[in-house]
User: What shape does this take?
Amino acid sequence: MGIVVQKYGGSSVADATGIKRVAQRIVNTRKQGHDVVVVVSAMGDTTDELRDLAEQVTPLPPPRELDMLLTAGERMSMALVAMAIAQLGHKAQSFTGSQAGVITDSVHGKAKIIDISPGRIEQAIADGAIAIVAGFQGVSQDTKDVTTLGRGASDTTAVALAAALGADVCEIYTDVAGVFTADPRIVPAARKLDRVSTEEMLEMAASGAKILHLRCVEYARRYDVPIHVRTSFDTVEGTWILPDHRSGENPMEQAIIAGVAHDRSEAKITVVGVPDKVGEAARIFETLASSEVNIDMVVQNVSAAATGLTDISFTLPREDGQSAMGALARIQDEVGYDKLLYDDQIGKVSLIGAGMRSHPGITAKFFSALASAGVNIGMISTSEIRISVIVDEGQIDTAVQATHTAFDLDATEVEAVVYGGTGR
Assistant: This one.
């Protein structure tokens, strides 16, 4: 049979018992006749612990050395899983990201995959071995240094390998049983979805759903890789993430709403008093781009006729807030704006569903649900299959619960079980 790529998150390999359970599942897949390639994350909270250790040594660890340190977590996992498989009588070989042929750019901390050269993985498969690959890491094409791909990017490693190897499926094992209509920690009545289109999953991941890494879904859509999200703590069927042409669903039968996602990791910057003339907004966002700051939602107010000035507000990852403020401060005289306002007590709530295209009134129903729950909206952004709003951080749970109920997404009985506590 074909190649199956499996990815196991930190909660699945958190201790020796978990590693043995994962090894048994891998061996069972091998016994079914599949060639198996496994991608592992660091054990439990190892990455956070290593980062904390680095910050105890220095408040500003050099990015190159921090990457060298953080990648040690996945190397520990891959070796231990390979040992556990060997104990079960099967051949396994472990590989770092570099050894597995994961080629990246040279941006430490959030490198992007340029190419996969899986020659050693293919040789291991040909030799009858199970290949165990360290996730979250690669090697720079230019500098040959070890790089990391950003938090949660073992998902991306797995899907990229699946694409490069022509795998039948990429199985992402987490501590929940699949993709749910909302975070079950906030909405206990959230329902597990059997199928989600890659388009919907892209919007959910971009809107804060932690179950899959955004770049992992982008890779899956680009290279047509089926993803099966399931739990390593049970044998139940999970959620299939499939391109529309492979989902087997008639558009007429497609659910209007796939789910409600939220994101607590954003901040908002408002540039007050920007001269309303050609090129000023471009200058602001070119500056942010050169500082490697990703922008999410943008709102520009109507220019005041008396002053010819306008305000520009945008959201960005909270971790990039200070670098963005510093970059904008350096161009204040050049742009001529009045001041900067920074707010990190916000959150984003998003309603997602490909069925929204053909159903009018969704926006009105969404906003009515929020109003009835007493939730104030700060910013609004839409796409063809998504509506996102910015709310006060303290109102996120209320907004998610009210929206989930308003669109009849609540299950009649509790379906969600969080096995490991982290959601990955």
The chain has three domains: 3-175, 266-343, 347-406. The chain is about 30% helix and 25% strand.
